[in-house]
Amino acid sequence: MSLVLQTAAMHLGSARIDDLGYAAALLTTAAYVPQLVRVLRLRSARDISLPTFLMFAIGVFFWLLYGLYTGSRPIIASNSVTLVLAVSIVVLKLRYDRNSMREIVP
Amino acid sequence: MSLVLQTAAMHLGSARIDDLGYAAALLTTAAYVPQLVRVLRLRSARDISLPTFLMFAIGVFFWLLYGLYTGSRPIIASNSVTLVLAVSIVVLKLRYDRNSMREIVP
User: Fold this and answer.
1) What is the DSSP letter of B13?
2) How many beta-carbon pairs under 8 angstroms link A with B?
3) How many Cβ atoms are within 10 Å of B35's Cβ, its own excluded?
4) Whole-model pTM?
5) Residue A73 in contact with residue A21, Cβ under 8 Å?
6) Is A93 an interface residue toward B (CB < 8 Å)?
7) Contact in structure between A39 and A93 (CB atoms under 8 Å)
């Protein structure tokens, strides 16, 4: 499996492998835009897990530090944007959950 | 900023930088466990964005290919697990959304 992929990688060329990395970074970063839009539109984040987005935001911050230490521009760029999106979702989750609790317990 | 971090990186040592990468990978992967548990427990994924988790799953699959091509074990390991978690959330989202539509339109 590994040998097949390494042969394929030689065929693919390192520029193409970099492109694959950039495509991956673009997808995993842009993915959080529709989630943010959905939470804003529904004014609800009930089904969203707070521990998930807290852990994710801390993890993305660590990736950002890792990118800064290793000097990897794609890691720095994608994780800066993802961090802003993840923190925004955490803030909205806390706000909307508090609002919905007020409705139940006035 | 970059110079300060590069000096800090020299002080930190490459083993510590690797540890930072592993910690980042562990956090961004493990983060999806509470989200999966929450969706299963609530039997609802209404507030979860389908485009987000579809794009995210494709992005993670690309990261996995990138890891396989470049032979990076941490990228392979973390993205294999994340892919399983992200696809599970997509499947549950589709199932629960269909069920909730049946309740409204019998």
Assistant:
1) -
2) 144
3) 26
4) 0.79
5) no
6) no
7) yes
> What are the structure tokens assigned to A15, written together?
């520029």
State the Rg of chain B over Cα: 18
pLDDT at B104 over 70: no
Reduced to 3 states (helix: H, G, I; strand: E, B; else coil), residue A4 is helix
Token look-up 């890792």 returns A66
> Quick check: B59 and A28 CB within 8 A?
yes
B48–A51: do the CB atoms touch at under 8 Å? no
By the CB < 8 Å criterion, does A95 face chain B? no
Inform me whether the C-beta atom of residue B44 falls under 8 Å from chain A C-beta atoms. Answer: yes
Q: Is B86 on the interface with A (CB under 8 A)?
A: no
Of B51 and B73, more confident: B51
Neighbours of B57 (CB within 10 A): 22
The pLDDT of B4-21, averaged and rounded, is 72
